[in-house]
Design brief:
The complex is a heterodimer of chains A (214) and B (575).
Chain A (H helix, E strand, L loop, with lengths): L2 E10 L2 E11 L4 E5 L6 H9 L6 E6 L2 E2 L10 E4 L11 H6 L11 H9 L15 H14 L4 E5 L7 H18 L3 E5 L2 H7 L2 E4 H4 L8
Parallel strand pairs in A: 3-8, 3-9, 6-7, 7-8
Antiparallel strand pairs in A: 1-2, 1-4, 4-5
Helix pairs in contact in A: 3-4
Chain B lengths: L1 H32 L3 H6 L7 H32 L5 H9 L6 H12 L4 H4 L9 H10 L4 H28 L3 H9 L6 H29 L3 H6 L6 H8 L10 H33 L7 H8 L4 H26 E3 L6 E3 L2 H8 L7 H35 L3 H11 L7 H15 L11 H22 L2 H9 L4 H30 L2 H7 L7 H9 L8 H30 L4
Antiparallel strand pairs in B: 1-2
Helix pairs in contact in B: 1-13, 1-17, 1-19, 3-8, 3-10, 3-15, 4-15, 5-15, 5-25, 8-10, 10-13, 12-13, 15-25, 16-25, 17-18, 17-20, 17-22, 19-20, 19-23, 20-22, 21-22, 22-25, 24-25
The chains are: A alpha/beta (214), B mainly alpha (575).
Chain lengths: 214, 575
């Protein structure tokens, strides 16, 4: 299994948000979780990424427990609802943020990913001039360069119009498949779920009694 | 735990930097006078000038604030209502006096009112009270009324920007439909009724805030009082001049009482005024919706002749003292023939200095060294104090956050002279050898500027989306890397504004520097201006030299404010 979550519990101010949640993901599988706003989808992703503390339960990635590791050490990528780009850097500067920790020798990988994302020629462009779709592409390029072991997509297409959402959903799927990166995508849009996912789970299936196994 | 400890160290350092010298100073004064600060207030009349100083301080501060409103409100109205070409330049010109160091303002007004100056040539002799002013003076029966008028005008000139900054945005962003709707009602038919029942409730909090801040600045004014009304005493001026004799057991106990009681009274008044201003500002921010500036201006249209003339006169009024100061540095009066000549002799002397006063390069070096020291200390401390308050707010420890916030604002209730005296009397008690330390003035400068740094950085920190930090974590950055590579660059505009304002404030700071440096060898530019002006005027270049030094100080300060304003406007500063 790529990702295994067992009996995960998260609460805010004594209120259970995730209660005994279970989820399993096979390698290079893209799972879409469908659920209404406010049900806890984002909390689940943030907990898997290590951005949110859990009360109890286990999270394992490639059979290795990661729930007691810091977010920085989990090797997980995440796309937020709003593209998070650093305003003090241009497009290339934002993408190169992926490399700050490593001493990279050449730009081949960067150019290759930028080419794949359709960002060639926009290297020096200010991020303020990017459209919503382009901004998410820059974020995705940056994350791909970190070679994540799992990608979490927190409704990254929700702010885009229907046609563009469909186009980028298909592109993301194709990129993830070509790189064999497993992913969890959360959305409340069934059409988007159909396009991108190998498997679609409804939120209530993840809670006790729900069967998330194929 | 480690982070909390790391944060509490700079906060503790900052609070001890403020409180330790002041507490030691109070302790010393209490020991010498044998009374507590509140008892000392009741004994202020024991100093020969104490009662007069208290009365004059309040009266001039209230009159200055009223005059500022009378002059400032029409300007704010015209600027806010109409579409002006080059409004940025007009606004900058009208704001200029407020960012002018007080010593420069004093020199500018002296250039305006001095014998042979512009007003004197027009028959308005505020300096020696002859002619029209003399007649007025004997008619109202107030001694030195020319000096008082000059002081009130100078305070109004200095604080005009406050009225504009508080009131103009309120006028220019009010949706026009409110006024239109009110005009339809019977009560809105006359101009007077609209002013009374519509505009006053709308602008009340802004006008009150402008009044209070003008009152605070006028209440603690020192350089302007010292040079424009040399025979009048405010508490600040009296404490500064007499303060050197305070804190010595058995010697001039009335002076120690004056400093202890005067500082306490002044602190209480400033605290009360700040509390009021804070309350009104909070009310102001919770009020009605706003529209963009351009919308109302486009709706009302271009100004009429009266408004144009008013803004022209206001701009001339704002710039005249500064321009005349520059001219006065090159217009030399010949003592023998009573004629004038144009020459750069004063500039030459100012840059060379002599045996009795430092040269401009020497004083500028000292000023810049202190300003840089102040920048480093206040930005570092201010950053960590703001960071601590923000972290406590994020952890929902609201009460503790408010407590640190209020404590960090304490120096705002202290004037330059109070801080200078606090350091003088406090430091002398703890470690007398520090008094001869070159860097000592950095301490009061940083005490006075750190609250501004906190006020600039804290709103900016609150505005930073936590997604940036999350994105950094997702990319594998450690807490330190996220701080250096993400948080600092995001705060760069506000840091530049805070740094420029700290430097500018330190460059122009007069009260505390005057207390600590008047007997020292490390004079700053403002202290040098004062020293040169204090010399007998038999030598024709004395005044022009002081004007030349003040011009250098003005240029340095304006340069820093241009930098700050550029970042504040284009990148969204918080202050």
């Amino acid at each position: 299994m790529s990702l295994t979550i067992e009996r995960l519990n998260v609460s805010f101010d004594g209120r259970d948000v995730l209660h005994n949640l279970n989820l399993k993901l096979s390698s290079d599988e893209i799972v879409v979780i469908l659920g209404p706003s406010g049900c806890g989808k984002t909390t689940l992703l943030r907990t898997i990424a290590g951005l949110q503390e859990q009360d109890s339960g286990t999270i394992s990635l490639l059979d290795e427990p990661i729930h007691d590791r810091l977010c920085e050490q989990r090797g997980i990528g995440m796309l937020f609802q709003r593209p998070v780009l650093f305003p003090f850097k241009d497009v290339l500067g934002n993408i190169l943020f992926a490399y700050k920790k490593k001493n990279f020798q050449n730009m081949d990988d960067v150019h290759s990913v930028m080419n794949e994302m359709g960002l060639i020629g926009k290297e020096q462009q200010s991020i303020e001039t990017l459209s919503g779709g382009e901004a998410q592409r820059v974020v995705l390029a940056r994350i791909l360069l970190t070679e994540p072991r799992l990608l979490l997509l927190d409704e990254p297409l929700s702010a885009l119009d229907v046609d563009l959402r469909r186009k980028i959903a298909l592109e993301i799927r194709s990129i993830l498949k070509s790189r064999s990166i497993p992913a969890i995508h959360v959305t409340h849009d069934p059409a988007e779920a159909e396009l991108i996912g190998d498997r679609i789970l409804h939120w209530n299936e993840l809670q006790p009694g729900g069967d998330d196994e194929e | 735990m480690k982070a909390a400890l790391g944060r509490s160290v700079p906060v503790a350092l900052y609070l001890s930097m403020i409180l330790v010298p002041l507490l030691f100073a109070v302790d010393r004064l209490m020991f010498v006078t044998g009374m507590n600060p509140f008892q000392a207030i009741l004994h202020l009349d024991e100093h020969p000038l104490g009662t007069d100083a208290i009365i004059f301080t309040f009266v001039q501060a209230i009159l200055s604030s009223l005059l500022t409103l009378i002059l400032g409100l029409p300007i704010a109205w015209w600027l806010g209502r109409y579409e002006w070409k080059r409004i940025g330049i007009i606004r900058a010109a009208l704001t200029l006096p407020f960012v002018t160091p007080t010593v420069v303002a004093a020199m500018g007004f002296l250039a305006l009112i001095k014998e042979g100056g512009l007003l004197d040539t027009m028959g308005i002799d505020l300096r020696h009270e002859t002619g029209l002013i003399g007649e007025l003076s004997s008619m109202i029966g107030i001694e030195y009324s020319g000096h008082i008028i000059a002081l009130l005008l100078a305070h109004a000139w200095f604080n005009l920007a406050l009225v504009i900054r508080f009131v103009e945005p309120k006028i220019s962003t009010l949706p026009p439909r409110y006024e239109d709707a009110f005009r339809m009602l019977p009560a809105g038919h006359s101009r007077w009724n609209r002013a009374l029942y519509f505009w006053w409730p709308m602008l009340k909090t802004s006008i009150q805030s402008a009044f209070v801040f003008t009152f605070i600045f006028s209440f603690t004014s020192f350089a302007l009082v010292r040079w424009l009304a040399p025979n009048m005493w405010t508490l600040e001026a009296l404490m500064a001049v007499e303060g050197g004799a305070a804190g010595i057991p058995g010697y001039r106990v009335d002076v120690s009482q004056l400093v202890l009681g005067g500082a306490t009274l002044q602190g209480l008044v400033l605290l009360g005024a700040l509390a009021l201003a804070g309350r009104w500002q909070r009310q102001q921010s919770n009020e009605i919706e706003i529209v963009s500036e351009g919308y109302l201006r486009g709706y009302i249209g271009t100004p009429g002749k009266g408004a144009r003339l008013g803004i022209f006169v206001a701009t001339v009024f704002a710039l005249a003292p500064l321009v005349l100061m520059v001219f006065s540095s090159i217009r030399i009066r010949d003592r023998t023939s009573e004629s004038y000549r144009w020459s750069f002799d004063a500039w030459d002397r100012a840059f060379k200095g002599d045996l009795t006063y430092a040269s401009v390069p020497e004083a500028l070096t000292n000023s810049l060294a202190y300003a840089l020291g102040c920048l480093v200390l206040s930005c570092l401390l201010g950053f960590f104090v703001a960071q601590t308050i923000h972290a406590l707010e994020e952890q929902n420890k609201t009460r503790l956050a408010q407590l640190v916030d209020v404590l960090s604002m304490l120096p705002l209730a202290l004037s330059g002279v109070m801080v200078g005296l606090g350091v003088l009397l406090g430091i002398l008690k703890i470690w007398p050898v520090m008094f001869s330390w070159y860097a000592l003035p950095i301490l009061p400068h940083a005490m006075l500027t750190t609250p501004f740094v906190v006020r600039i950085l804290l709103p900016a920190m609150r505005e930073i989306d936590s997604d940036y930090d999350d994105a950094g974590r997702i990319l594998g950055y450690s807490a330190y890397q996220r701080f250096v590579l993400i948080k600092l660059p995001l705060l760069k505009p506000q840091l530049v504004v805070a740094a420029a304002l700290s430097m500018a404030f330190s460059l122009g700071e007069f009260g505390a520097s005057w207390i600590l440096l008047r007997s020292g060898a490390w004079d700053t530019l403002p202290v040098l201006v004062d020293q040169v002006m204090s010399r007998p005027k038999y030598f024709e270049l004395v005044e022009p030299i002081a004007m030349a030094i003040a011009t250098v100080l003005m240029c340095m300060t304006f340069l820093l404010f241009v930098i700050a304003e550029r970042f504040r406007t284009h990148q969204g500063g918080g202050f």
